[in-house]
Amino acid sequence: MRNVDNRKDAQDSMVAAIEVFHHEEGDLMWSQQWHSSPETLPHAAWNALMAEQDGASPFLKHEFLQALHDSGSACPDTGWTPQILTLHDHEGVLRAACPLYAKSHSYGEYVFDWAWADAYDRAFARSGQRYYPKLLSAVPFTPVCGPRLGVDAHLPPAHQHLWRTRLLMAMEGRLTQQGWSSAHILFPAAPEQPQALQRGWLQREGVQFHWRNRQPEPYRDFDDFLDSLQRDKRKKIRQERRKVTDAGVVFKIKEGAQITPDDWTFFYRCYAQTYLERGQHPYLTPVFWTAVSQTLRDHWVLFVAERQGQPIACALLAIDRQRQLAYGRYWGALESVSCLHFEACYYQPLSWCIAQGFDRFEGGAQGEHKLARGLEATPTSSLHWVEQPAFKEAVANFLHRERQHVQTYIDELDDRKPFKYLDDAD
Asked: What predicted TM-score, i.e. pTM, was given to this entire model?
C-alpha cells in the first residue's frame, strides 16, 4: 500500500519540494522522499549517515551539495535537477540515502556515455523515446569514489541489505514512473556494487591514477619517495623540479583558515583560465567557491606558485585528515613555465602528503603521465540500469568487450610502474 503527499518550502524566492511516498510492509511503515533541492534534506542526519560509509569524502557533505545548487553550478538551469532520495523508518529516522539528479546531458560526469545517447536516440527517437533525461547518482563534477547507496551503518547487516535494496528499487521505479531511459551510479564504493549487480545492473570499469604511501613504513620525505623509483624516473623528476626552481618560482602552502579571500579570488582566476584555454566555461562559479571556502574551510589546501613576489599559478587539494586522504582537484596558471604543472599538481602535493603522513593522494582520471610520477593505475567502476531490453543487451555486449580492453590496459600500466624492483641496484 502506498500514498503520496507533497510539501513545499519557499526560500530565497526558490521553491524546494519534497515528494513523499509512504509504504507499508506487514506491520511496519517506511517512507521514501524525493528532494528537489539539498535544502530540504535533514542536514545533520545526512552528514552523519554519509560520514559512516566506506569511502566517505568531503564531497558528499550537505554543505558541498548545497553550495553546488545555490551557486547555480549544479541546478536545473545547468542540466542538474536534484532528485535526491532519502528513506526513513516508521519513526522518521533517516536510514538510507542517495545523491541523485535528473540529467539532460552528460557533461561533468567523467564516465562517458555520449555514444550510448546517440545510439539510443537513433534507434528509438521515432517511437518518441529519448536517452535524456536520465537518472544519475553522482557528485557533480567530482570523479571521486564514495558512497552512493548509503545505509545506516549501525543496523544489522540484513537490515542494511534491505534498505539498500529499497534504494535500488526506488531508483528503478522512478524510471518507470517518469518514462526515463536509464539510471547510472558513478564511482560507487566497492561494498555497494554486488547488491546492484544481483539485481541486474550492468557494471562498467574505468581507470584513475592514485599515489599510495609506503606501508608499513611510510616515506620519510620526498627524497625517500624518489629513492623508491627507477633511476630514469628519478632523474627526470629532479630535472623537472630544477626547471621550475631555475625559473625563479617558489611555492607558498596555505591550509584552511590560512587561505584568504584574496587567495580564493586568485585561485578562481587560475581555475577559470584552465577552462578558457580549452574554449570552455568553468563548471563551478565564484559563488560556489565562496561558500565552500567558509562551510568546508578545513578541507582545502592551496599551493600558490610565485615569481618575483607575484602569484602566477596555483593548485587546490581537497583533504580529509580523519581518513588521511588528499584529492587533486583543480589547477591553473597565468604564466607559462616549463614543468610548472607537474610541480604544482604532483610534486608539491606529494611532498605535503608525505610530510603530513597521508595514506593516499588521488590524482583523478586520465593522464598516463601520472604513472611516471609515482601514481598507480587504480580500477574504478560505475553501475548502469537500462530500461529498454534490446538496448540493455547491446550495452551489456559493449561493456563485456570494453572490460577486456580496460583490463589489458591496466595490465600494461602495471608493467610500466616506475618503482624499483627488489633486485634492482642503483
From this structure: 0.93
